[in-house]
Design goal:
Layout: H1 4-17, E1 23-27, E2 44-47, E3 50-53, H2 62-71, E4 76-83, E5 86-94, H3 108-116
Antiparallel strand pairs: 1-5, 2-3, 4-5
Length: about 120
Amino acid sequence: MHQIEYVLRDFNNSISKLNNNGIIFIDDILPLNYNEQLKIPNKHIYENGILKYLEPWTGDVWKVCYYLLKYHSTDFEFKYYNNENYRGVGVFKILNKFNINSINDFEYYKDFGKYFKF
C-alpha cells in the first residue's frame, strides 16, 4: 500500500530483520504532481475492501524518504533510480539500524521542493 502508515510499518519491520549493510528498496518515491501523492487518489474504487487506483498514483511514500534523508542520512547510503515507466526507486543501504516512531506532517507544497533537492 502506498500510504505513509504502511510504508513506515514495512520499513521498520524490514530494518529489524536486516543483516549488516542490508538494503531496503522503496518504490514510487517521486510523484510527478500533487494529485499523484495524495493519500487516497481522486480516481479510485474499493474491491473486497482493498483500495484500487484508477490513475497514476504514488501515494505519500515520498514523505518517508524525505524523513529518512532529513533525519537519518548518516545511518544509510542512498541512491535512487528513475525511469519514464515508474516513479523512482530509492535504495537504502542501512549502516546503522534505527526505528521511526512517527513522521512529521510534511506537505507537498511546503516540503516537496526541499525533498527533491536531496
